[in-house]
Amino acid sequence: MTGHAPEPRPGGSVLVTGGAGFIGSHLADALLAQGYRVVVLDDLSTGDQRRVPSGVRFVKGDVRAPGLDTLLLEEKVDTVFHLAAQVDVRKSVEDPVFDAEVNVLGTIRVAQASALAGVAQVVFSSSGGAIYGNPVGERADEEHPLDPCSPYGVAKLAGEKYLAALAPDGGYLLTVLRYANVYGPRQDGRGEAGVIGIWMNRLLSGQDAVVNGDGLQTRDFVHVADVVAANQAAFLHRVPGTFNVGTGVETSVGELYGLVANACGIDTPPRFGPGKPGEQRRSVLDPSRARMALGLAEVVPLAEGMRATSEWFRLHRAQEGLG
Ligand SMILES: NC(=O)c1ccc[n+]([C@@H]2O[C@H](COP(=O)([O-])OP(=O)(O)OC[C@H]3O[C@@H](n4cnc5c(N)ncnc54)[C@H](O)[C@@H]3O)[C@@H](O)[C@H]2O)c1
After folding, report:
1. What pLDDT, on a 0 to 100 scale, did the predictor assign at position 1?
2. Residue 142 falls inside a structural domain
3. In a domain, 6, yes or no
4. Ligand 1, closest atom to CA 23?
5. Catalytic residue among 36, 132, 152, 183
6. Residue 3: pLDDT band by 50, 70, 90 thresholds?
7. What residue numbers bound the domain in which 23 lies?
8. In Å, what is the CA distance from 271 to each residue of 101, 266, 267, 268?
9. Which of 58, 87, 97, 183 to mutate to test the pocket of ligand 1 (most atoms within 8 A of CB)?
10. 10 Å Cβ neighbour count for 257?
């Protein structure tokens, strides 16, 4: 399935908002390796400029600031990957106004600027983990009722709707990618699967790790390489529409702890702490549509991805002198 925009021009320019972040920096690496000219816009609020690959034009700035259309025009940007966001679900509960400022107003700015500058495609990083609520039935597909439990989920859903509403007729093609809980090298404690990074850092430094609640709450953990592949496929084949990017495998947080501990070579049991109020009990996505339309048949198995992630954490800790 291909959209109405012309195929991306080899060597053309793309913008990755949030490209100094966990997922955005992996995407910037991949697009650069494919020969595209990559511009990263990031305010470094949670990002780290050291993650931005050399060869990328780095612009320190806020997606909410006016003037984004000028940057898009100057850089002749063909496609915008919009990842910049406030990604901490708990922070969105504590400060929903700030969350909405970044995730709703920021996304409106990106939509308006992309329309004004005549961008061909916008690929939006949304959250399947946060907008469906507890799945009714086995897995949530893209037609599942939308019932976000947190201000973060509400804002991500609003972002999807604004991007669609502000796409002019014949204007940018829109791809919405709803990620499950993303994990992998470079992640820190903030994203939806941030617990993996927190646990690995603690276990590798000889500390214990806490499981909140009874550990029976479930999530769908997808490796960052699969998320990057979904973005690339949506872009290279100009695929419009909304797609879950997950594995379809439901893993309990207790089981996850076992995998993390195993990957770190540690057999200490977890410490159980109180559950977090308002936390979803279950979350698992049906990835069938993306498998068909984006060709994402093979995903990184969790145990394998976990081993590679723990190796990265070990190396990173050694480089930072924390080993
Ligand atoms: N990590 C996950 O599990 C997950 C799951 C679902 C969706 N997502 C989405 O994927 C995207 C990337 O998430 P991540 O895990 O890489 O998070 P991250 O915090 O590592 O990256 C977000 C980046 O956006 C930047 N940023 C924040 N506010 C900004 C602003 N106003 N202007 C410019 N830059 C700003 C930050 O500095 C950071 O570099 C987000 O849109 C997030 O909602 C992530």
Report:
1. 41
2. yes
3. no
4. 16
5. 152
6. low
7. 13-183+222-245
8. 36, 14, 13, 9
9. 87
10. 20
Which residue in this structure is represented by tokens 């955005």?
24
Q: How many independent structural domains does the chain possess?
A: 2
Asked about 152 being catalytic, the answer comes back as yes
Q: Does the structure show a pLDDT above 80 at 104? A: yes
CA of 13 to the centre of ligand 1 (A): 21
Q: What is the pLDDT of residues 261-320, one digit of tens each?
A: 999 999 999 999 998 876 789 999 999 999 999 998 889 999 999 999 999 999 988 887
Q: How confident is the model at residue 251 (pLDDT cuts 50, 70, 90)?
A: very high
What residues contact 142, with CB distance under 8 A and at least 6 apart?
178, 242, 243, 244, 286, 289
Q: What is the pLDDT of residue 318?
A: 83
- Give the lowest-confidence range in 24-33, 184-193, 224-233: 184-193
* This model's pTM is above 0.85: yes
What stretch of H or E contains 157?
helix 151-165
35-38, long-range: CB < 8 A, 24+ apart: 35/10, 35/11, 36/8, 36/10, 36/11, 36/12, 37/11, 37/12, 37/13, 37/75, 38/13, 38/14
In this structure, are 55 and 162 located in the same domain? yes
Q: What is the pLDDT of residue 169?
A: 81
Return the ligand 1 atom nearest residue 42 CA.
34
Main-chain dihedrals φ then ψ at residue 37, nearest 5 degrees: -85, 120
269 and 227: one domain? no
Answer yes or no: is the C-beta of 106 below 6 A from any ligand 1 atom: yes
CA dihedral 7, 12, 14, 19 (to 10 degrees): 130
> Cβ neighbours of residue 313 under 8 Å, at least 6 residues apart?
185, 197, 200, 201, 204, 264
